Amino acid sequence: MMTDVMEQSGGPTRPKAEQPAVNGSEPAVPLSPTAEAAGPPETRTGTEEPSASARIVQIRERIDEIDHALITLWQERAALSQEVGVTRMASGGTRLVLSREREILERFRVALGADGTQLALLLLRAGRGPL
Questions:
Q1: Would you give the distance in Å from CA 61 to the centre of its chain?
Q2: Where are the alpha helices (DSSP H) in 14-97?
Q3: Contact 32, 60 (CB under 8 A)
Q4: Which residue, 56, 86, 98, 103, could crosslink 45 as a Cys pair with Cβ 3.0–4.6 Å?
Q5: pLDDT in single tens digits along all 131 residues of the chain
Q6: Which helix (H) or strand (E) holds 12?
Q7: pTM higher than 0.90 for the full model?
């Protein structure tokens, strides 16, 4: 899985060590900054209009919940995929089943287009490691 994160400035950074571990190996990304660290509402939301700012905060809270669910599901999927690989290889099978990977790539491509293919490639890599 990814160990470096590219900032907008282009420089690599490492997630903070105090974050909970991902699959027991890497720190997870924080869900959202604390209100104190983010600054006044207009700085956090990009608007000074109170009702728009409040709505943006509400929407972002839901986005953070979705992000948390995605991260949790990603970790579960990677662990299950790794277990499949270990079980298959322990029984004398191959490291990969390319037809299964093609099925997954196609499922994501049909549902999400080109971005879906990229997402599927990342998911597959998280479960089996790089080729």
A1: 17
A2: 35-38, 41-45, 50-90
A3: yes
A4: 56
A5: 343 333 333 444 434 434 444 444 444 555 555 544 556 666 789 999 999 999 999 999 999 999 999 999 999 999 999 999 999 999 999 989 999 999 999 999 999 999 999 999 999 999 998 87
A6: strand 12-13
A7: no
**What is the chain's alpha carbon radius of gyration, rounded to the nearest angstrom?**
19
120 is written with which tokens? Answer: 């599927």
8 A C-beta contact, residue 71 and residue 28: yes
The rounded distance, in Å, linking the Cα atoms of 61 and 24 is: 26
Q: What residue has token string 């890599």?
A: 125
Identify which of 33, 119, 41, 124 has the alpha carbon closest to the alpha carbon of residue 77. Answer: 124
How far apart (Å, rounded) are the C-alpha atoms in residues 78 and 84? 10
DSSP state, 31? S
In whole angstroms, give the CA distance from residue 40 to residue 68.
24
Task: Spell out a b/e string for 96-117, using b for 16 or more CB atoms within 10 Å of the CB, else e.
Answer: eeeeebeebbeebbeeeeeebb
The Cβ-side half-sphere exposure at 99, using a 13 Å CA radius, reads 1
